Amino acid sequence: MKNTYITIVVLIILVAGGVLVLGTSKKAEAPAREEPISAGTENTSGSPTVADAPSTIKEFTITSKNFSFTPALITVKKGERVKITFENSAGFHDFKIDEYGLATKKTQSPTTEVLEFTADKVGSFEYYCSVGSHRATGMKGTLKVTE
Ligand SMILES: [Cu+2]
Fold this sequence. Notes:
147 residues; 2 domains
């Protein structure tokens, strides 16, 4: 009888151990995403490659119209992954940040384009519309990357 009892206990331990191992190995497979910088590239696929990573990803929606961007200031920390949804609500515009090599297409509203990048440079960087004299007319803002 004692042997049966020990066998059952051992079985339970084995099963529990197996569940634990399975559970942890599943988690281990999930992360480790490469960093595909979508800067300047056209996102034709609707970006299913960018999974909803629970890690720090800062998301912003920047709306453009004649002749401004809203908001005109966004702040992130160095090293953070940044996702900018550019929404052109009125007019013919684009969105650019030269220092980060980011650029959307020039489009007639209404359009939406998503840019994603890693904020690996500290400083204040101007985002602007490169159409005509829009930048000088006020279509600009600041991406602030802090240490
Ligand atoms: Cu513009």
